[in-house]
Amino acid sequence: MKSCLRYIDLFTDTVGRALAWCVPLMMAITAVVVVSRYGFGVGLTAFQEAITYLHGTVFMLGAAYALQKGAHVRVDIFYQRFSPRTRAWVDSIGTLVFLLPLCGLIVITSWSFTANAWAIREASVEPGGIPAVFLLKTLIPAMAINLALQGIAELLRNALVLMGDEAAELPERGQL
């Protein structure tokens, strides 16, 4: 159980750290777009769309990283006062009742939408746009799968806490 947890956490952490590099890249591309548009009067459609693609990638694939680090929104008025065992119960129930079913619903409802985009190799409707809208749409089921995988890791971590392994809780939770 611990090795499975370790591998999922390593995967999520690696993806999250890689995604962090998208943010300065987005900022640089935004600066190029602004300078080219307002300084030279040249529009760069592909660059503008690249910003959207990067933002979507960070948001969608970063959800699992945020879950791992405990950065999702929750009502901490009571939660912060709970013992590690009570937190493990609350988190486990929330994962089983809300997170995993939601991830399953997202995969099921987005699968044909994404498959259709891949079947026609959906491209941007804008002249000079990125011819890979199908890749952007792939982020929807990928996000759900990635988030469900991290949800399973959280269940494993909570199971360890409930079995008496207090060290199973991440020391850096709540920090990105």
UniProtKB/TrEMBL annotation:
<comment type="subunit">
    <text>The complex comprises the extracytoplasmic solute receptor protein and the two transmembrane proteins.</text>
</comment>
<feature type="transmembrane region" description="Helical">
    <location>
        <begin position="50"/>
        <end position="67"/>
    </location>
</feature>
<keyword id="KW-0472">Membrane</keyword>
<keyword id="KW-0813">Transport</keyword>
<dbReference type="GO" id="GO:0022857">
    <property type="term" value="F:transmembrane transporter activity"/>
</dbReference>
<protein>
    <recommendedName>
        <fullName>TRAP transporter small permease protein</fullName>
    </recommendedName>
</protein>
<keyword id="KW-1133">Transmembrane helix</keyword>
<dbReference type="InterPro" id="IPR007387">
    <property type="entry name" value="TRAP_DctQ"/>
</dbReference>
<keyword id="KW-0812">Transmembrane</keyword>
<dbReference type="InterPro" id="IPR055348">
    <property type="entry name" value="DctQ"/>
</dbReference>
<feature type="transmembrane region" description="Helical">
    <location>
        <begin position="128"/>
        <end position="149"/>
    </location>
</feature>
<dbReference type="GO" id="GO:0005886">
    <property type="term" value="C:plasma membrane"/>
</dbReference>
<keyword id="KW-0997">Cell inner membrane</keyword>
<keyword id="KW-1003">Cell membrane</keyword>
<comment type="function">
    <text>Part of the tripartite ATP-independent periplasmic (TRAP) transport system.</text>
</comment>
<feature type="transmembrane region" description="Helical">
    <location>
        <begin position="18"/>
        <end position="38"/>
    </location>
</feature>
<feature type="transmembrane region" description="Helical">
    <location>
        <begin position="88"/>
        <end position="108"/>
    </location>
</feature>
<feature type="domain" description="Tripartite ATP-independent periplasmic transporters DctQ component">
    <location>
        <begin position="26"/>
        <end position="158"/>
    </location>
</feature>
<dbReference type="Pfam" id="PF04290">
    <property type="entry name" value="DctQ"/>
</dbReference>
<comment type="similarity">
    <text>Belongs to the TRAP transporter small permease family.</text>
</comment>
